[in-house]
């Protein structure tokens, strides 16, 4: 007799008719083997949540609880931290190294006064980084003057002769704008990039793109802001969004991720 | 259960970037997640807080990718259970630190049956409980699920048994209910 196992469960998740037919009958009566398996394995789909929703609905309804401020503050704090899905990113430094022959340093477009200063309200970008029909994650690797690569945690100290390489994960293809901001300056547009769905290194038409830190010192923020393909984000629109005007983010068509580093004041300050 | 539609609206608002919608989702669903955690007796209160936090962080990060707003509650509870189990298994050293029970991918969570079906499921489960032979398992299930006040730890104290025994009874019973609901899903809802 066949009982539920991993293989059967994924066959059921794929709605394979043969498996559906067999287990529909098999599960009609108590089966210790299958029940034991179901108790200790999750799925298919969100069946576990459905089961728990039904079980928890057996008790008398609870009175409407006020917001647990402390608990929610913890969640918010965590969401604000730039986030890397380690399963997805894996050994990022190694992956980037393979394509490292030609780094095109993104030219700096020194801009005038059209930028907007970002107030503290715009800092809470954790949740917002995922917002929209395109979701985006960002990882940053520093390439040192000796050629060595190291993956950066947010707020890491980097050297001014490092070049920052960006790797993104996008849920859809789209167009992205890369912005940077120095300590007390306005956000600057560094460039526009086409994104592919999946995990890729940020590249321009000429190859892998890097952000040179030459002449920098102090805190530096990078933003990658993306819209799904066909919805070209305009730099001014994106800047407005970075400022965090209102609660609603452009009807969810823009995903923004940010990454902060601190540049060690080098021997050649600006 | 009756608030499922209301919840879905908040899910949509959160997915479109309305930050206040996240706190409303948290306010509405945290008690449910906390009640789920109360069944995992081996977890102490700090661990429970951590698991609740991790659950919401994961869910809120992935929320914009959730295609079916109406499935939010079941999806959230699935994540919560996975997080609690991962924590328990790590605690028991069954699972290496880097291993992780993977959560249902938000893009593939299917639409769930409407509230009416849920009401029917609830009735089926009530019936199954009433048919349980009198004994420790039935008593545990009644205290935890029907009365819904005591935690598994408190039940263990009241019944004078070890705390993991209570969780094991609840899990065993839940396995039976899951089998029954899976059969019902296979019998009708996927065809
Ligand atoms: Zn079986």
Structural domain count of chain A: 3
Assign an overall shape of chain A.
elongated
- CATH homologous superfamily annotation of the largest domain in chain B: RNA polymerase sigma factor, region 2, helix turn helix motif
Percent of residues in beta strands of chain A: 25-35%
Element-level helix/strand string of chain B: HHHHHHHH
Radius of gyration of chain A: 24 Å
Report the span from N to C terminus of chain A. 76 Å
Cofactors, ions, other ligands: zinc ion
Shape of chain B: globular
Structure commentary:
The complex is a heterodimer of chains A (270) and B (191). Chain A has 270 residues and is an alpha+beta fold. Chain A folds into three domains: 6-56, no CATH class; 69-98, no CATH class; 106-264, Immunoglobulin-like (Sandwich). Helix content of chain A is 26%, strand content 27%. Chain A is built from eight helices and twelve strands. In chain A, the strands form two sheets. In chain A, strands 1, 2, 3, 5, 8, 9 and 10 form a seven-stranded mixed sheet that branches. A five-stranded mixed sheet of chain A has the order 4-12-11-6-7, covered by helices on one side. In chain A, a hairpin with a 2-residue loop joins β9 and β10 (207-212). The radius of gyration of chain A is 24 Å and the shape is elongated. Chain B is mainly alpha-helical and 191 residues long. Chain B has two domains: 3-98, RNA polymerase sigma factor, region 2, helix turn helix motif (Rna Polymerase Sigma Factor, Chain: A); 110-187, Arc Repressor Mutant, subunit A, CATH 1.10.10.10. Bound molecules: zinc ion. Zinc ion binds next to α3 of chain A.
């Amino acid at each position: 007799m066949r009982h539920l196992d991993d293989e059967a469960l994924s066959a059921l998740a794929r709605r394979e008719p043969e498996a559906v037919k067999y287990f529909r009958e098999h599960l009609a009566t108590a089966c210790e083997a299958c029940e034991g398996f179901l108790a200790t394995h999750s799925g298919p789909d969100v069946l576990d949540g459905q089961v728990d929703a039904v079980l928890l609905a057996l008790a008398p309804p609870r009175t409407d609880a006020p917001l647990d401020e402390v608990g929610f503050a913890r969640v918010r704090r965590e969401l604000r931290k730039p986030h890397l899905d380690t399963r997805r990113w894996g050994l990022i430094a190694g992956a980037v190294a393979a394509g490292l022959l030609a780094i095109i340093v993104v030219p700096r477009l020194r801009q005038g006064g059209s930028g907007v200063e970002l107030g503290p309200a715009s800092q809470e970008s954790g949740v917002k980084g995922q917002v929209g029909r395109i979701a985006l994650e960002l990882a940053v690797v520093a390439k040192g003057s000796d050629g060595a690569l190291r993956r950066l945690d947010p707020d890491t100290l980097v050297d001014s002769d490092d070049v920052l390489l960006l790797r993104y994960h996008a849920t859809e293809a789209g167009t992205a704008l890369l912005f940077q901001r120095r300590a007390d300056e306005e956000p600057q547009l560094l460039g526009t990039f086409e994104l592919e769905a999946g995990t890729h290194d940020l590249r321009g038409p000429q190859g892998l793109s890097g952000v040179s830190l030459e002449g920098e010192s102090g805190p530096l923020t990078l933003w990658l802001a993306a819209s799904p393909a066909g919805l070209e984000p305009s730099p001014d629109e994106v800047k407005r969004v970075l400022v965090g005007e209102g609660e609603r983010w452009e009807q969810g068509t823009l995903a923004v991720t940010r990454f902060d580093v601190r540049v060690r004041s080098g021997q050649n300050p600006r | 259960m009756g608030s499922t539609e209301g919840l879905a609206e908040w899910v949509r608002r959160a997915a479109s970037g309305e930050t206040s919608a996240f706190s409303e989702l948290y306010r509405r669903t945290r008690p449910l997640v906390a009640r789920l955690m109360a069944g995992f007796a081996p977890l102490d209160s700090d661990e429970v807080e951590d698991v609740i936090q991790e659950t919401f962080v994961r869910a809120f990060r992935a929320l914009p990718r959730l295609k079916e707003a109406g499935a939010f509650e079941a999806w959230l509870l699935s994540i919560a259970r996975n997080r609690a189990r991962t924590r328990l298994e790590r605690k028991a050293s069954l699972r290496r630190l880097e291993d992780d029970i993977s959560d249902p991918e938000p893009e593939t969570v299917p639409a769930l049956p409407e509230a009416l079906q849920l009401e029917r499921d609830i009735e089926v489960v009530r019936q199954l409980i009433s048919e349980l032979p009198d004994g420790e398992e039935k008593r545990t299930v009644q205290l935890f699920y029907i009365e819904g006040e005591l935690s598994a730890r408190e039940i263990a104290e009241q019944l004078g048994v070890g705390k993991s025994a209570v969780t094991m009874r609840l899990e065993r019973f839940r396995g039976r209910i899951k089998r029954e609901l899976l059969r019902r899903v296979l019998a009708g809802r996927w065809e």
